[in-house]
Amino acid sequence: MEKIILTGDRPTGNLHIGHFVGSIANRLRLQKDGNFDKFYIMIADTQALTDNADNVDKVKNNIIQVAIDYLSAGIDPNKVTIFIQSQVPQLAEMTMYFMNLVTLSRLNRNPTVKDEIKLRGFASSIPVGFMCYPISQAADILAFGSTIVPVGDDQLPMIEQTREIARTFNNTYGEVFALPQPLLPDNKACTRLVGTDGGLKMSKSAGNCIFLKDESEVVKQKIMNAYTDPNHIKVSDPGRVEGNVVFSYLDAFCQKEHFARFLPEYESLDALKNHYRQGGLGDVKIKLFLNNILQEILQPIRERRKELEKNVDKIYEMLFENGKKASQAAAETLEKMKEAMGLNYSKFLSKK
Ligand code: ATP
Ligand code: MG
Prior knowledge:
Elements: E1 4-9, H1 17-33, E2 38-43, H2 45-49, H3 56-73, E3 81-84, H4 90-99, H5 104-108, H6 111-119, H7 128-131, H8 133-143, E4 148-150, H9 156-173, E5 181-183, H10 216-224, H11 245-253, H12 256-262, H13 269-278, H14 283-308, H15 312-341, H16 346-351
Parallel strand pairs: 1-2, 2-3, 4-5
Helix pairs in contact: 3-14, 4-8, 4-15, 8-9, 10-14, 11-14
């Protein structure tokens, strides 16, 4: 079986460090391994419009931002096909056929959609397009015959839904789709990075992000204001590590060698956590340690971004060219789908 990777992001803002550990790091690893037949990354503008219908400019302007974030994080456009979702109209047609294979009650049970409805404050005014985005996401994944989908864990219900749709389609009309597998980060701390406010998930829509493009002083400020343990007031107070944003980020980003470089009086994260729990270790010290680690990771990304920003035309050209390639690949799948469904009307013509 071919190894086809597809993943993507909504152009609702710049990419943040949650994306970096949750999905980009795996993409970079797969890209480096080179062990794949095709590798697509989709900028999901159509999906972003499902909860931003009145803010098309935001979605439109963030397409290039997300593309620059990819390239500055190290995604290589010679190895990976980066494209814009709306430039592949076949995805919309596939979504229509898939909609008939999913019940409303199944959509209502999707836990990520439920969380997002709360976060976006939709109450009872949920756009139908938003409710159905798991179906359109299934089309995105299945259109390219994807077998591996690198994601954070909020996307697991979407992959499950995609597998169900693929199975239902295959059972109803005949075998067309392979069942895709999610690929989560190995480090559990990276599957759903919390926001700087201690909220459930760092998310562009929640305003609790450290962005890859943030200038170094901004990163430092956000770390200094991050949620820790509200009962850890004096340095001597015992502190809580669980639910403490700084330790969550250290779990995700800290490597053993960071201690030798930035905090040689401790030999491991466990030793640092134990001291914090006992009391005698202040928030400023752990925050400055985290700041050193994140600055080291983000600085080269920021520098590459500044270079890339000088030639956005070239990036748009790359996206538009790839849109055509992606559209061709999706058209082939759509053809197979319609053949399996018996929607091959051209047969009537050839009889004449
Ligand atoms: P939005 O608020 O617009 O939904 P988002 O910040 O959730 O934006 P998406 O574009 O929806 O970002 O997600 C893109 C990918 O990044 C998905 O695979 C998702 O699982 C992953 N991801 C997003 N946020 C995090 C996070 N905080 N931790 C780990 N992975 C994340
Ligand atoms: Mg999201």
